[in-house]
Write a structure and sequence with these properties.
Length: about 150
């Protein structure tokens, strides 16, 4: 088991486009409404190539390897990366309470604990303005929620 780190920074309105954050699912049938067929085509074209965070953290593993920001064998190593990412963006967090150092340490410790038992971690923060910052750690080979998903680096 190992862990991949992912980061995304972008406009909140892009993050809110949930359809782009879901994998395609089952193909439409011949009798499906046009909007269902359009949604499916859009998801096939966009989901795997966009860096937009997926709704389900494990679905990061379906995305290209180029989106992996780091890979670690040990949860503690992944936690160090997560802590550095949080510390780097904390001054820009829109909510002052979210900048609290103790809170960030607790988040990292909880993330390491979750990774230890094979869980995934997903955190997001509004930054000043209309920007959203997303961080994720996905456990790989196997992923607890989606054990059939292959490692994106193989």
């Amino acid at each position: 088991m190992h862990h991949h780190g992912y980061a995304w920074l972008g406009e909140k309105k892009a993050f809110d486009r949930e359809g782009f954050r879901r994998p395609p699912g089952e193909p439409p049938t011949a009798g499906s409404p046009q909007e269902v067929a359009d949604r499916y085509r859009e998801a096939v074209a966009e989901f795997k190539v966009t860096g937009l965070p997926p709704v389900q953290t494990a679905h990061w593993l379906l995305k290209p390897a180029s989106l992996v920001r780091g890979t670690w064998q040990e949860p503690e190593e992944a936690g160090v990366w997560l802590g550095l990412q949080l510390a780097g963006f904390a001054p820009r967090f829109a909510a002052e309470a979210e900048r609290d150092t103790t809170r960030l340490v607790v988040l990292v410790r909880a993330a390491v604990e979750r990774l230890t038992w094979g869980g995934d971690v997903s955190l997001g923060h509004y930054l000043t303005g209309t920007v959203f910052h997303s961080l994720a750690l996905a456990t790989c080979t196997p992923n607890r929620d989606e054990p059939h998903l292959p490692c994106p680096l193989k």
